[in-house]
Design goal:
globular; five-stranded parallel beta sheet; alpha/beta; Cobalt-precorrin-4 Transmethylase, domain 1; 285 residues; binds S-adenosylmethionine; Methyltransferase, Cobalt-precorrin-4 Transmethylase, Domain 2
């Protein structure tokens, strides 16, 4: 795989089950000149499983800057490089953003090789609406900062998705219960594609009880999904989804009076309708 200019491939790898890798990904990993891997020891398992002997170089958050120059040099000399992370799609809460940005700026071709991604796998099987969603990556560690995020999303449409660690899953569900209330719908996807895969979808109260009562539900890797506000609920006084979204964003940043004033200018809708909607949105916060 040598051209005048090398290509950078962004290759998704399995999130647990080694069979979850595409034929194209295997072909690329076999044919590139170098694989930049988040953890070479971890990726060795995958390489051995598929008899891939391509040289690997460690590329992780602690050496991103120093290794980047070397990788760009390889690309400049016509070699092709595959970027992989420990699991799933690189860059999705994994290293690679600055490499992709620099490679594109330098005029190299960057080619995605799609595959597993924990948030997409969780969403697809959660039973929550998947037509619109927001992904927050890992939430902050403190309860105070977490609840501020839940408050900000609480009255928005679309499913809220985030990654959570086993150490914080119980505390996180405590916060979800405090902000969203017992009856709101949520889903917890644990150990996806692995032996103990568990996807629990139900009310906040049901899932909270399950997580606190069952120690096994506090182990492994987690994706948490929270249902968004019903579309119908947001259609007020002829305001469109976009109008409500604009108003909601403004309300999170400014006073009610300023938010309404700006929303009138941005949406062209009547002040009266926007004011009424703003009061309702604020009371739901
Ligand atoms: N790049 C990965 C992707 O495409 O999903 C995400 C990497 S991020 C550093 C790792 C987090 O993703 C884990 O802490 C967990 O929250 C989530 N995750 C990864 N694999 C998972 C799995 N098999 N089941 C549930 N969550 C998983």
């Amino acid at each position: 795989m040598s051209n005048d200019k090398g290509t950078l491939y962004i290759v998704a790898t399995p999130i647990g089950n080694l069979a979850d890798i595409s034929l194209r990904a295997l072909d690329v990993l076999k044919r590139v000149n170098l694989i930049a891997a988040e953890d070479t020891r971890n990726s060795k398992v995958l390489m051995n499983h598929y008899s891939i002997q391509t040289p690997m170089l460690a590329y992780h958050e602690h050496n991103e800057q120093s290794k980047q120059a070397a990788l760009l040099k390889k690309l400049a000399s016509g070699e092709s490089v595959a970027l992989i992370s420990d699991a799933g799609t690189p860059l999705i809460n994994d290293p690679g953003y600055t490499l992709v940005e620099s490679a594109k700026q330098a005029g190299f071709e960057v080619v995605p090789i799609p595959g597993a991604c924990a948030l997409i796998a969780a969403l697809s099987a959660s039973g929550l609406a998947a037509d619109r969603f927001m992904f927050e990556g890992f939430l902050p560690r403190t309860s105070h900062a977490r609840t501020a995020i839940f408050e900000a999303y609480k009255s928005r449409q679309g499913t809220l998705i985030f990654y959570e660690s086993s150490h914080r899953i119980v505390k996180c569900m405590d916060d979800v219960l405090a902000i969203y209330g017992a009856d709101h719908k949520v889903s917890i996807a644990r150990e996806l594609t692995k032996t103990y895969e568990t996807i629990v979808t139900g009310t906040v109260l049901e899932t909270h009880q399950r997580v606190t009562a069952d120690k096994n539900m506090q182990r492994g890797e987690f994706v948490v999904l929270i249902e968004g506000v019903d579309k119908k609920q947001q259609k007020r006084d002829g305001l469109s989804d976009e109008d409500m979204e604009t108003l909601n964003i403004l309300l999170a940043e400014c006073s009610l009076k300023t938010a309404v004033k700006l929303a009138v200018q941005l949406t062209g809708q009547a002040k009266k309708a926007l004011y009424k909607a703003a009061l309702e949105l604020n009371s739901e916060r």
